Amino acid sequence: MADRDTNEDGAAADGGAVKDEATMPREPWQIGATHRKVDAMERMRGVTRYTDDLKLPGLLHCKIKRSLHAHANIVSIDASKAMAMHGVFGVVTGKDFPVPYGVIPWTPDENALCVEKVCHVGDGIAAVAAVDEDTANAAVEAIEVEYEVLPAYYDPQDALAEDAVSINPWSRKGNNLSKDVVLEFGDPDAAIEGADVVVEGDYHFEGTTHAAIEPHCAVASMEPGTGVLTVWSATQVSHYLHRELAKVLEIPAHRIRVIQPPLGGAFGGKSEPFDLEFCVAKLSMMTGRPVKCLYTREEVFYSHRGRHPMKMNYKTGFTHDGKITGVASRTFLDGGAYSSFGLVTTYYSGQLLCAPYDFPAYRFHSTRAYTNKPACGPKRGHGSVQPRFAMEIQLDKAAEQLGLDPIELRRRNHIGSDRATINGLMVGSNGFLECLESVERRSEWKTRRSSLGYGRGLGIAGSTYISGTNYPIYPNEMPQAAVQICLDRSGRARVFSGANDIGQGSNTMLAVITSEEIGLPLEDIRVLSADSDLCPVDLGAYSSRITLMVGNACLDAAKKLRRKVCTSVAKRWEIPRKRVTLAGRRAIDIEDPDRNVPLAEAFQWAETDYGLLGETGNYNTPKDRHGSYRGGTIGASPAYSFTAHLAEVDVDDETGVVSVERIWCAHDCGRALSRKIVEGQIEGSSYMGFGEAIMEEHLVDADHGGVHAGPNLLDYRIPTALDTPDIEAIIVEAPDAQGPYGAKEAGEGPLHSSIPAIANAIYDAVGVRLDRLPFSPPRVLTAIEERKAREAAGEHAPHKRRGDDEKRSA
Amino acid sequence: MAQPVLLQLRINGASHHVAAPSHWTLLEVLRYELDMIGTKQGCDKGDCGACTVQVDGHPVLSCLTLACQVNGRAVQTVEGLGFASSSGCHPLQDAFDRYDAAQCGFCTPGILMSAHAMIARLGRPVTREEAKEGIAGNLCRCTGYTKIIDAIVDASERIYCETTTTTEVTHG
């Protein structure tokens, strides 16, 4: 992070009368306000050009031939009929892309199109470029593929059987083990054995998908004159796409320009290269014409890269007063056919569980297997949403056994601030207690929980998440983020950033920081982002890294420019630099506010003194905030956010329908740079977790050859406005020294605890534990009927005076 | 390919003569023939609502509507929404902007068209429940709908009760 203003130049002019800005921060004029986003109105007018809105002269349309088998060798591909069709300009197959790739450099285990075998239904085999979509579809149909069908595996433990056929063609181990991680801290077996109470549970999260409303789309244009290949893609990781395009197409990166147009949602579903980007690029190179590919909704489902199915066993020990003594877990991850981010997911399934609660002993053993399903990858809350589901139900079970209030139990295990977790991650600021207190108070937990009748319940859960990762995906020591800002004599700022705005508002975040420092209103600031020819490299929109990392880089550049402008103004007014402030489109003398000039004039003075007003800003992560063991860097972040969710549900015990009435979500984002945008992230995360809890399940049908159970938005239901509960977003601010103005992430953390809060509320309502997602009516009803049978057999007292209520209504 | 048919479409008050294959949907004609990209394709199956436009004031899914079905009828798209207003944007668009009700914005044109039709049909300020019902056919994956509902209710109040005061947000 940039040094605060100190007196290395202009020291004589500054004198000692005015305190340094570091000790006397000026009143913020933008930070913490609400803003109209810099690019929202054009979206609402329908003039924003998303990738599929691009139209170039001579544009060809690409369609991809996809496997109908879950697992098969490709014996032959005959594209001669397709090539001979009128209007077809080119066909590519796996042989055109011999170089394998993978977003994680250690696991390059997929080709742009299948070379020798297909590994899941929907795997890409060949692609055509034709004059229009109808012709391209007809040509795809005309491609003949001969298969030799192989046995397919849809369960990670089946795939790991010794006699199973190896699925992934690049698997180095020659079996279906994708990644195995065992990490142990302290002595968890002894800690659990010596505990007063031990809770053990099996949990199953089948996995979900992103379902961004914009399908994946890419356009490529090879300019024959310059030899530059331009690729426009609906991606959230332009830079990784850029690198993999260069590798797979075997052309230098400097001959490729990657542009991310405005994006229609991503949630992790666009965070690595997909077959369509390679196909349109290669087909444009072959045909000399621009080529577009737009996935159908069905292809989006088959491309997936969504949340991993996980089967989890958890053992947790507690003392009588509710302190956690140790945690041990065994997890199987269903990875699907390729690695994607799976190496990281496997680590995250254990590494991110060591806060907000403190415990002295921990072991996790996570095993990821290849299966014949669409590959799994990162979805909002990468790798840690599933174990959080298990952990928070474990805590709820313990609270009941110990006769403790579940919020009180969490409070007693609070890890606090400025200390290391059991696995060596350094927690900085921590607003978790305030999060708990906020939702407890707003929901009137203390009075209402004990008074709600049978069928109605409240549930609590907590969580933590990273604000970016301290180590980049490919090892290097360059800055993790860089921003350029240019001021010009017309009184405007241009901000150049490689960061991908995927709807989360990162362009506005950059404008807010620039505005805060430079004094221009947002409408005078143009943010140009995610174009590899114009912008510095940024690693992309993932791991909740942008606000902290790119925000810090932007702040660095903006402070340098502020200093120059203030110095030039101070020189002309013959006052110390620190008497000058910039706000409201003016440079102002703090002690004599009537003396002020428009910023355009101040910029002209500064340009006269310094030449063109451009500065770069950089940010790099701390490298001393993790354990020294193998894997200890994974999960290490500059700062951690904290969340508490409290859900209120109404459960119909005759139908099993769970109605989530209200969700209170308090999230510690460090500092809210723009309040409504932060609230929007909390609301959107809570909504997404609610959908995963109640209705979403990404299922592959093993009984029908591995086809997707319903690759459309009718069968794969996501919540409508009528389904979605009222969500009360509560911003908690525990500023972190690592973040710009103290800011941490807000985009992913507030999803995690949404799901277990609902599970725990269902238990409070009707007395059934739901350890398998989603909480669909048949599953809930079955559990309620089992509970009633046990009550009838005298094994349980009736839950929450159920009998009394029934007597009253009778 | 099927023989093109000649259609006369009235879109946002302007007359368009289009030759399009008879199996083309209104969505295809809008996007491919007329370059009216404001109407979005999210699923092409009638599930997501991103392609919602109005025909004779009623919200319809343009991906499930054949272009020839709307021959001669009045079609309104998001591009026409703020057209008549002196500020260049409709109160709904302004409210969505103030509340940050659009995150990625991809579903927004469809939601605006559904909300606009509902507010016009009811002819009065709408409740939160009415707003939810009005956009129940439009999926949004970003927002959790909260700010969308806030914006629709606020806009309907501004349209029908000029005196209503609502919290102003700073425009940086």
Provide an overview of this structure.
The complex is a heterodimer of chains A (810) and B (172). Chain A has 22 helices and 30 strands. Chain A is of the alpha+beta class. Chain A is globular and about 90 Å long. Chain B is of the alpha+beta class and 172 residues long. In chain B, 31% of the residues lie in helices and 16% in strands. In chain B, strands 2-1-5-3-4 form a five-stranded mixed β-sheet, with helices on both faces. In chain B, a hairpin with a 2-residue loop joins β1 (4-11) and β2. In chain B, α2 crosses α5. The radius of gyration of chain B is 16 Å and the shape is globular. Chains A and B meet through α2, α15, α18 and β30 of A and α2, α3, α4 and α5 of B.
Structural class of chain B: alpha+beta
CATH domain topology of the largest domain in chain B: Ubiquitin-like (UB roll)
The name CATH uses for the topology of the largest domain in chain A is: Aldehyde Oxidoreductase, domain 4
Report strand % of chain A.
Answer: 15-25%
Main β-sheet of chain B, in a few words?
A: 5 strands, mixed
Q: Tell me, what is the CATH class of the largest domain in chain A?
A: Alpha Beta
CATH architecture of the largest domain in chain A, please? Answer: 2-Layer Sandwich
Largest interface (CB within 8 Å) is between:
A-B, 66 and 59 residues
Outline type of chain A: globular
The multimeric state of the shown protein is: heterodimer
Note the run of SSEs of chain B as H and E. EEHEEEHHHH
Helical coverage of chain A, percent range: 25-40%
* Uncertain regions spanning at least 5 consecutive residues of chain B: 163-172
Order of neighbouring strands in the sheet with most strands of chain B: 2-1-5-3-4
- Helical proportion of chain B? 25-40%
Number of strands of chain A: 30
CATH superfamily of the largest domain in chain B: Beta-grasp domain
User: Main β-sheet of chain A: number of strands, strand sense, barrel status?
Assistant: 7 strands, mixed
- Looking at CATH, the homologous superfamily of the largest domain in chain A is Aldehyde oxidase/xanthine dehydrogenase, molybdopterin binding domain
Can you tell me the number of structural domains of chain B? 2
Order of strands in the sheet with most strands of chain A: 3-5-1-12-9-10-11
